[in-house]
Specification:
With 65 residues, the protein is mainly α. The protein has a domain of 25 residues. 60% of the residues lie in helices and 0% in strands. The chain is built from 2 helices and no strands. The longest helix is centred in the last third of the chain and has 24 residues. It is globular and about 40 Å long.
Length: 65
Amino acid sequence: MAKNENLVPEAENGLNKMKYEIAKEQGVNLKDGYNGDIKAKDAGKVGGNMVKKMIAQAENQMKNK
């Protein structure tokens, strides 16, 4: 498996939607396609907040079992 492949391919659309929502919340201007021109700091904000949100969702699922 390549480093950037999704473990659950069916989740790709949801992850992309989350990425753009978080980018908008953080004031990061993402566009469709190539975004290699954004600052590493901004990419880190988006990725870091995605991870926080996914961890919170997983914790809630575990709590509710």
